[in-house]
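Replying to the earlier thread about multi-chain prediction with a worked example.

Input:
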Amino acid sequence: MKTITQVTLIVFLLSLLVLGIATLLQAQGLLPTDLTLLLTDPTIQLNAVMLSPDTTATASPARDPGVRGGPAGAGGAIVGLTARELEFFNTGQADFESVEAVADGLGPRMNLDSCAGCHAQPATGGTSPSVNPQVGFASKDGGTDRVPFFITLNGPVREARFKFNTDGTRDGGVHNTATLTGRAGAAGCTLAQPDFDTAASNNNLIFRIPTPVFGAGLIDQIPDRVLLANQAANASSKQQFGVGGHPNLAVSGRTITGRTNNNGNDGTIARFGWKAQNQTLLVFSGEAYNVEMGITNELFQQEREQDPNCQFVTLPNDVTDTNVPTTPAGLSGIEKFAFFQRFLAPPTPSTDTPGGASSISQGRKLFVIVGCALCHTPMLTTGNSTVAALRNQAVNLFSDVLVHAMGPGLADNILQGGAQGDEFRTAPLWGLGQRIFFLHDGRTTDLLQAIQGHKSAGDSTFGPSEANAVVDNFNRLNENRKQDLLNFLRSL
Ligand code: HEC
Ligand code: HEC
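Result:
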């Protein structure tokens, strides 16, 4: 009896709260008067914004508040680890930050010499730093590499892929920016860099910037069934706004080259990378060690460049050390990286910066109302994870982890697993407040441009972007409301 009374009271209080929010939005001209419909049918909310935009404000144009200052709020261990788990985290972090050399198996072709060099902003595990380490790396230790035109000191860290081979078949693979040529310890190794200029002039060159790995252990632990249930949710709004999306079901062997490969696969949902091309942090670590740094390992055993004059250590370059009787010390590099990333805490959002608490909370609602949340799902939950700190946790990632057709404007014409040339994973937006470069190729540092970049009409190769109607909704907001949304994004 007592519980029932309590429940009634809570329900009553909640409705008051909802009523209050709705009245507030209504007063600002954002929502129409039909409260019941408004609160039960998200489609109506979206329509309301379209039909009754607030045109009364005489605000200055909304603008991206820029990278949020203050402490990083990221880079530490997730709350709730055991002392032993913390040991794995710390050992993993040290290896993630360690700078590798020829004696460690670096190269013969690579993009840089440490994981943390690319995953740096605003702390180890993040994204591109403000100063691109690839510029200095070109001549490090006697290196004679030319810095390609798309690598600049104040630009984003970039890896390059070619869309096609010279015979017209699909390539899709990473072509490294650096080589061992001229470097200490690599005498006799002379390699030509890829011809990026020709590839660019043939429209055959695309770029990718690093994605952050804060909270990645939580993303690792979201069950496939949760992703599929979320895909099915809000169907009518998604249909109305043309938002689709599908999971990237992993096809083994297609992650690097984009070519089909007849190996079997387990058919589960891949989730990491710009095209959700890799299933787990361990797989991504194995691939990154080989692709970004040229260090072969237990998962990727073959050197990508096998010029016999350029092999200076045994293969694979880094494996579990069977002579070391203890963990985590004896673990191979990729296991250490994976532990670090699994145990890395999610970024901490700000409640009041930039723009103040009420602007941010208004922006949070608008993010849902205009339809951003149809792809950028604010929250998903982990399952019954073996690691207690990751078990049944709310994951505020702002992504559905599905790939969406984003139109010719963003298309890179690279196929990865089930992801087509114009399809990308909804970028998780947590930590956005302290990210410098946006979109898969780092084409902009301005949030407004990142939003407008979602919109493009179809052409003869690709259909229109699934986000077109949602961007139109955003554009209908008045400048004050746009500012609220931008403030919210930079609070993340
Ligand atoms: C030269 C820069 C560079 C280096 C060095 C580098 N990465 Fe990355 N990292 C990237 C880029 C670029 C992407 C996005 C790749 C893509 O999706 O095509 C990425 C993506 C990732 C992701 C996917 C995260 C997500 O949620 O999408 C993981 C995990 C990762 N890197 C781990 C590592 C590890 C571990 C190392 C060291 C062995 C490493 N990276 C070294 C550039 C780098
Ligand atoms: C149809 C699904 C979809 C909708 C709707 C959508 N997004 Fe996105 N968003 C994506 C995808 C996919 C990417 C990655 C695109 C790329 O990099 O090529 C992305 C990237 C972003 C980025 C860049 C993140 C980064 O790390 O570079 C921002 C910011 C962003 N979205 C904000 C928004 C906002 C704000 C809205 C609503 C106005 C919105 N998005 C609506 C799918 C969507």
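Residues 22-69+233-245+350-491 form a domain with the Cytochrome Bc1 Complex; Chain D, domain 2 fold (CATH 1.10.760).

Feel free to reuse this layout for your own posts.
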